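pinging the channel bc i need a second pair of eyes. not urgent but kinda urgent?? the chain im working w is below, pasted from the shared doc
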Amino acid sequence: MRFPIIKGLFPLLLVVLAACSDSTSTKTGQAAAPPVATPDTVAAALPAAPEPVVPDTSATHNVAAYLAGLRVSEQSDLKPLAAQPAWQAYATDADKSWDKYHSTRTAKIEGWAATELDSVRAASPTIFYPFSGPDFLNVTTMFPTSQTYVLMGLEPVGTVPARATLENAKLFSALKASLWSVLNFSFFRTNAMAVDLKSVELDGALPLMLLFATRTHHQVEAIRYVQLTSEGQLTEADSATIRKPGPKHVPGVEMKLRTQNGQEKTVLYFSVDISDWKLSTTQEAALKYVRTLGPLTTYVKSATYLMHKSYFSKVRNLVLERSNYVLQDDSGIAMKYFTPTNWQFTYYGTYKRPINLFAKQYQPELTAAYTDKAHPPRPLPFGTGYNWRENDSNLLLAHRTTPVQQ
């Protein structure tokens, strides 16, 4: 009786054993499989994303530093040149000259402007500096936080100096001669500068702009040669075009800079005659371009009184139409061209008479303003312009009463 029962249960026992075997197999398989990774584990397991490729700008910056008498990088191919006694002596003299300049001028300008131009600086992303030549030095000292600077002058654009130029034995004396007047009097002797620089194949404004950029603690990020079409459009150019521009194009250069605190700046220089007659031959490309820049702050210094004259009416009118602020010495726009109801004026320093070379540009209106006892001029603790001595200089800040619209 018992045997048949066991016989009947045997198939059932086999089924149970098979089920246990399947279950054990399943658990064993799960234990063998790798654990599912969490998102953090996956991210850690993947290779790191490559760093963005940063253009190598050290070569151009090292050229600028070499011109300025500042140390070049250890990896620079200019390191052997900077080790030579001639450059060492030049760098020592340059440091002394710049230390004196910064203590007697830069520190005073910065202290004055921090108070007197505080609100102006905050409202001045774009600075227009006509008749500037390569003078990035003064404009960046006066307006250190602006984003874009547009300079215009008669000097050729120039190019980044070639190795042969940097090896020229006459280089250092030519640079010292060219910088002498701007470091001592705040303005360039344009004719002398042209002779000095030509003697060592420093072919225009750019080499000095590079020097000023490094001496004012900027990193040179990029240099791009540009030109303006007849319609005022900014287009790229090459060095050959810059040296021999076509009659309908305005040659220029764009410097991309970075300050010590990381601010990016764009500096544009255009070689152009902005007299009325010359502007007509280039179809006013330069002024058309400036009109695209939005509201301006215009800075004018040591401008040979050109905007006093009838044949500089186009650039003068542009400044008066598109500027919210004009900061100038008496060589800028004559007072008779400002409409008093449109502008508020703040006078600084002293106005006597122009130097003898420009005696005919005397302005009785300025004498009256500077002798107004009810509204006396404010102090100017540094020299600037042709009357470069501290107690002889003047500046005028003109503030438009109704802001320029975009």
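so Strands lie at 126-129, 148-153, 219-228, 234-236, 250-258, 264-271, 296-300, 323-328, 343-349, 394-400. and The mean pLDDT is 85. — does that match what u expected or am i reading it wrong
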